[in-house]
Design a protein that fits this description.
Layout: H1 3-18, H2 27-38, E1 41-47, H3 53-61, E2 78-82, E3 87-92, E4 97-100, H4 105-108, E5 115-122, H5 125-128, E6 133-137, H6 145-155, E7 161-167, H7 175-186, E8 190-196, H8 203-220, E9 228-229, H9 234-244, H10 247-278, H11 281-331, H12 333-341, H13 347-382, H14 384-394, H15 399-415, H16 424-439, H17 469-475, H18 478-482, H19 491-549, H20 555-579
Parallel strand pairs: 1-6, 1-7, 2-5, 7-8, 8-9
Antiparallel strand pairs: 2-6, 3-4, 3-5
Organism: Amphibiibacter pelophylacis
Protein name: Dynamin family protein
Length: 584
């Protein structure tokens, strides 16, 4: 176990005994402890189809384990995990899984359409040396649209660092790859670049390609590690790259703010309890009435925000998305025409999918970030009077500011707006799969029925907890768009079709479908923020009410309660200083 994880877990384990004789609730402690215990650091290895990702990983593992030369349709995301008990877990689209022998790996990929991803457990010394990391062999950018989008949807929000593999034979980073990497930047992900197969070219050719890619990296990506050249020394180079990943730092980035917020919340509750024990019955009842009024203010503000959402906010966000999609499709005209005229029938679909998805991901994320901050600020302002009165009551003048900052951090860190898409599409998919099973009289062991694009049926695994409708919208209507191309292959005619029919068609489809998805997400955002504020107020209400209800005239008992709380506060402050504030 990582030192940082162990330290954080030990800190959380020391908290409950301190509060055993108090009325303070510790649900958040247990929740955070569970998150830290089960967190995984996924490192997807991505790149174009045939860039040599699987060969690279085989070299690292020291054995020919992963199949190479697969057709694009048979590629599946495969997680590499250390385990003395070697086996393969194939995760079905309906969330179930089957355990198989490792030898089944090559054959299982002929059933790729049945699975969301694979987990390969190996007793391998290289994996054992990196117990905190889970490498993921990803479908290539040239794999089938379904496989690729399914993998991207699942791992983009989960990956902590991406290793980008490009072949020296490609000569540069393709436009498609640059778009994919732009998606990673939108989610705030970091990545390392590898120039693979350098043994297949002369030193001069390798240097020429490396300089070109280095220039592309500098122009498009900030704070990225230098390009690493990989040839027959792939095992050594990849091991060094993985060793450079600071797993301890990643864990700190994920959990430190949450631990600090938890600590502040516990100290705030202790101070509130101490205040309530020292205040008169009348003063405590007045505080309870102020808190109850705060809850009413939150509910009124929630209704006001939702009303405004249905008016101005939604229309502005939709227009912003459509304008950006239109501009980026216009900019990609030449690439769209070339894709259609190429010999690969999927090329055109892929470019449309990538441009629409990337454009909407960036725009919607920006819109949702703005919206979330605005919503938090509105709620905070609505209970400004409560913040002042509770500041005076508990001698915590910055309580409301701390709560506001904490909610903002939570939304940005864990959700990044797009991370909290509702499960509507996932639930629809699950119901559709159930319906098809009944219709086709499906039995265990039979291949799962295939869900088509029509009717908003998702190609994503129903086990995906983060469902990103932007990917849905990027591919769902492609079959209809392609119907425009039923004659002729002249460049000028194709370009006119793209300008006059394809781009307007995409925008019309988005205009029809996007408002409902955005409205739903914005409403979820408002509800989440409202719940967070109500929870903060509710904790204070419950604590004061229980202290007032259980108040005893026994002076010695009251003194004992106060002493227990003061001791808990001192211990928490000391533990936090040793664990969370060493550098401050």
């Amino acid at each position: 176990m990582l030192k940082t994880k162990k330290t954080y877990l030990e800190y959380l384990e020391l908290i409950p005994p301190l509060f055993a004789k108090t009325l303070i609730q510790l649900d958040d402690v247990a929740r955070l402890k569970n998150d830290i215990e089960h967190t995984e650091l996924l490192v997807p290895v991505i790149g174009a189809y045939s860039a040599g990702k699987s060969s690279l990983l085989n070299a690292f593992l020291g054995a020919e384990i992963l199949s190479v030369g697969l057709t694009p349709e048979t590629e599946l995301a495969t997680e590499l995990r250390y385990n003395k008990d070697q086996h393969l877990i194939a995760v079905h689209l309906d969330g179930t899984s089957e355990r198989l022998d490792v030898s089944a790996l090559a054959g299982i990929k002929t059933r790729a359409s049945e699975f969301s991803h694979l987990q390969l457990h190996l007793d391998n010394p290289q994996l054992k040396a990196l117990p905190s990391l889970v490498l993921v062999d990803m479908p290539g950018f040239g794999s089938s649209l379904t496989s690729h989008n399914k993998a991207i949807a699942y791992y983009l929000p989960r990956g902590v660092h991406f290793i980008v593999v490009t072949s020296v034979e490609d000569g540069n980073l393709t436009q498609s790859m640059l778009r994919q990497l732009d998606d990673l930047q939108t989610y705030g992900r970091e990545f390392t670049f590898l120039l693979n197969k350098t043994n297949l070219r002369s030193d001069e050719q390798v240097q020429e390609v490396a300089e070109l890619i280095d220039e592309q990296i500098r122009m498009n990506f900030a704070n990225t590690l230098p390009l690493t050249k990989v040839g027959l020394d792939a095992d050594i180079k990849l091991a060094k790259i993985l060793a450079r990943l600071d797993s301890e730092k990643i864990v700190r980035q994920v959990f430190e703010d949450r631990l600090k917020d938890l600590t502040h919340s516990l100290l705030s509750q202790i101070n509130l309890a101490l205040t309530a024990l020292k205040k008169s019955q009348t003063e405590n009842e007045y505080a309870l009435s102020e808190l109850a009024n705060g809850v009413r203010q939150i509910k009124r503000k929630r209704d006001d925000i939702l009303e405004d959402l249905r008016g101005r906010q939604l229309s502005r966000a939709v227009d912003s998305c459509l304008n950006m999609v239109g501009r980026e499709l216009d900019n990609a005209q030449s690439e769209l025409v070339n894709a259609y005229l190429s010999s690969n029938p999927d090329s055109f679909s892929r470019v449309v999918s990538e441009v629409v998805r990337g454009s909407m991901t960036r725009t919607v994320k920006a819109e949702m970030d703005i919206f979330s901050r605005s919503v938090v600020a509105d709620f905070s302002k609505a209970i400004g009077d409560l913040g002042q009165s509770m500041g005076q009551f508990s001698n915590d003048a910055n309580w409301l500011g701390q709560v506001t900052d904490s909610i903002n951090r939570t939304l940005q860190k864990t959700g990044e707006a797009l991370g909290y898409w509702s499960k509507t599409l996932s639930e629809y998919n699950e119901n559709e799969l159930k319906r098809l099973k009944e219709e086709k009289k499906w039995k265990k062991g039979m291949p799962l029925p295939q869900i088509g694009y029509q009717g908003l049926a998702t190609v994503l695994a129903v086990t995906t907890t983060v469902v990103n409708p932007l990917i849905e919208l990027a591919i769902i209507f492609l079959p209809q768009i392609l119907n425009f191309f039923n004659e002729g292959r002249q460049r000028e005619k194709v370009q006119q079709k793209v300008i006059n029919e394809v781009i307007p068609s995409v925008k019309r489809e988005l205009r029809d479908r996007l408002p409902a998805l955005l409205a739903e997400q914005m409403e979820v955002m408002v509800a989440q923020v409202s719940i967070e504020f109500e929870r903060e107020i509710g904790e204070k209400q419950k604590l004061i009410d229980e202290l007032v209800t259980g108040r005893s005239d026994d002076t010695e008992l009251a003194k004992l309660q106060i002493a227990t709380l003061i001791h808990a506060r001192e211990q928490i402050q000391q533990l936090a200083k040793q664990t969370l504030y060493l550098e401050e």
